[in-house]
Structure to design on (366 residues):
């Protein structure tokens, strides 16, 4: 099999829904993936004009697969520090950071969005929608890409994704901001779209480097793309690898992790587009109050737009000084389907209209 055939294989479908033991399930998935890699004899073509070493790739893939499984075993002994050390050594041995070229940077001035739930028609401040301040770090609880006590900035590539992440709050609770990065930022890309939708991929040669990267990191993406079974339990094994990766990011000159929403299953929807989140952990650790200076310098934000207040401002799709909304309001998303059989252009939804209005508000420093 070549890289494209591996990506289109049912074995690499994501996200993962399972029953029973998390560790046994992930071991089975990764071992089956390894069987495909080890038996593939079609991997030696050049990748984007560069010579490709088949045996070196297979060896690095084996190290990554075994390293992830060993990391879980160490964590299950009650040694999270040892698990992190083993995962870090694994990522170093497989040169994962070496794959993060400019294709996996967030371009300067990318539009990103945040929502905070808050009733009422009085806008919050832009700081209210930044990361949780250091003096209230006790509020940071465990999530897939959230370590208790470690503030992080979470953004989405659309208002729609941010809404799904908050489990679809009412419009009266939605206060929205647009953020933009002042310079390009290196990301660890763990998005899983390509494994759930890949019919548009034509051949192996046309997508060479990207397919190589996706197959390389599949074991990591899979370990981070498992749906939680026991949502009310304090310990969630599905979060082990994502949280360890968040620690790794902070120590390896990588600004954040780009990941697909676990609340949007592209294999079971008619959405047309790319839907992702990015987490940026704080990078200053000596402060007891306020916000991370590095993240403050990296981003600007608009003032906050409460969507209920917006309904009082205008019934139009634009603010007074704006032109009408473009069908390409969000270059990542063409249309979404929230009611079965009723696909809507993104520009006609309240999400697209909110993004258009936010583009009419000035960006300000934190």
């Amino acid at each position: 099999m070549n890289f494209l055939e591996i990506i289109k294989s049912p074995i690499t479908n994501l996200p993962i829904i399972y029953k029973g033991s998390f560790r046994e399930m992930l071991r089975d998935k990764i071992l089956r993936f390894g069987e495909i890699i080890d038996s593939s004899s079609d991997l030696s073509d050049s990748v984007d004009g560069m010579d490709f070493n088949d045996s070196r790739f297979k060896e690095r893939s084996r190290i990554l697969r075994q390293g992830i499984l060993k990391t879980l075993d160490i964590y299950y002994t009650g040694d999270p520090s040892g698990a992190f050390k083993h995962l870090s050594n694994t990522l170093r041995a497989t040169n994962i950071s070496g794959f993060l070229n400019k294709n996996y940077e967030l371009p300067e001035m990318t539009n990103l969005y945040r929502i905070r739930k808050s009733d009422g028609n009085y806008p919050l401040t832009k700081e209210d929608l930044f990361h949780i301040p250091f003096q209230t770090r006790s509020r940071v609880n465990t999530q897939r890409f959230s370590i208790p006590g470690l503030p992080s900035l979470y953004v989405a590539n659309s208002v729609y994704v941010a809404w799904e992440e908050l489990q679809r709050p009412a419009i009266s609770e939605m206060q929205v901001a647009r953020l933009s990065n002042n310079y390009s930022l290196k990301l660890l890309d763990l998005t899983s779209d390509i494994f759930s939708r890949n019919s548009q991929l034509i051949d192996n040669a046309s997508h060479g480097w990207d397919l190589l990267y996706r197959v390389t990191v599949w074991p990591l993406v899979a370990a981070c793309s498992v749906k939680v079974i026991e949502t009310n339990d304090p310990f969630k094994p599905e979060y082990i690898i994502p949280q360890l990766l968040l620690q790794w990011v902070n120590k390896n000159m990588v600004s954040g992790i780009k990941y697909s929403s676990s609340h949007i299953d592209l294999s079971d929807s008619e959405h047309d587009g790319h839907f992702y989140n990015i987490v940026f952990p704080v990078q200053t650790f000596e402060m007891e109050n306020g916000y991370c200076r590095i993240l403050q310098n990296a981003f600007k934000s608009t003032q906050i737009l409460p969507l209920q207040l917006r309904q009082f401002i205008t019934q139009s799709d634009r603010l007074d000084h704006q032109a009408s909304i473009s069908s390409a309001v969000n270059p990542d998303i063409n249309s979404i389907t929230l009611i079965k059989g009723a696909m809507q252009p993104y520009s006609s939804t309240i999400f697209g209209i909110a993004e258009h209005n936010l583009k009419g508000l000035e960006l300000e420093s934190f």
User: Anything to note?
Assistant: The radius of gyration is 21 Å.
